[in-house]
C-alpha cells in the first residue's frame, strides 16, 4: 500500500470521526418528541448538515481507496476511527473514556497491527 492510499484512508477516517462528532452535537438539540416540526429542526441543524456532508465526502474518498487497494487490507485500517472517535469525544464532548474502553482500544490497535503485517 503506497503513501497516497494510506493518506486517503486517513482522510476517510478523519471525515468519519468529524461526521460522528458533528452528528452528536446535532443530537443535543432539544427535541423530546419527533414530530414533523422537530424533524425539520433536527435536519436543518448546521451540525447535522455538516455531519451528513462529511459522510458523503468520505464515501467518495473511500471509493478512491477501493480503486487503489484491496478492501481486505484497507477496511481494517478504518478501525483506527474507533480510537480517534474516543479521543475526540473525550476532548470535544467531555465524554468519559474508561479503563475498559482504553483496553478495547489497545485490542483494536493490536488487531490493526496484525492485519497490516499480513
How would the blueprint of this fold be written?
Elements: H1 3-27, H2 36-43, H3 46-68, H4 71-77, H5 80-93, H6 99-117
Helix pairs in contact: 1-3, 1-5, 5-6
General description of the model:
This protein is mainly alpha-helical. It has one domain (3-117). 81% of the residues lie in helices and 0% in strands. It is built from six helices and no strands. The longest helix is centred in the first third of the chain and has 25 residues, at 3-27. The radius of gyration is 17 Å and the shape is flat. The mean pLDDT is 90.
Number of domains: 1
Mean pLDDT: 90
- Taking the alpha carbons of the first and last residues, their distance comes to 12 Å
Structural shape: flat
Q: What value does the Rg take, in angstroms?
A: 17 Å
Q: Give the strand content.
A: under 5%
**What class do helices, strands and sheet pairing give?**
mainly alpha
Main β-sheet: number of strands, strand sense, barrel status?
none
Low-confidence stretches: none
Amino acid at each position: 500500500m503506497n503513501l497516497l492510499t494510506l493518506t486517503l484512508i486517513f482522510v476517510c477516517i478523519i471525515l468519519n470521526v468529524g461526521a460522528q462528532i458533528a452528528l452528536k452535537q446535532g443530537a443535543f438539540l432539544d427535541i423530546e418528541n419527533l414530530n414533523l416540526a422537530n424533524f425539520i429542526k433536527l435536519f436543518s441543524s448546521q451540525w447535522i448538515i455538516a455531519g451528513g456532508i462529511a459522510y458523503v465526502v468520505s464515501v467518495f474518498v473511500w471509493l478512491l481507496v477501493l480503486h487503489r487497494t484491496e478492501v481486505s487490507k484497507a477496511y481494517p485500517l478504518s478501525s483506527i476511527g474507533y480510537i480517534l472517535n474516543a479521543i475526540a469525544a473525550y476532548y470535544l464532548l467531555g465524554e468519559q473514556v474508561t479503563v475498559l474502553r482504553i483496553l478495547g482500544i489497545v485490542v483494536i490497535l493490536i488487531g490493526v497491527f496484525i492485519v497490516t503485517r499480513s
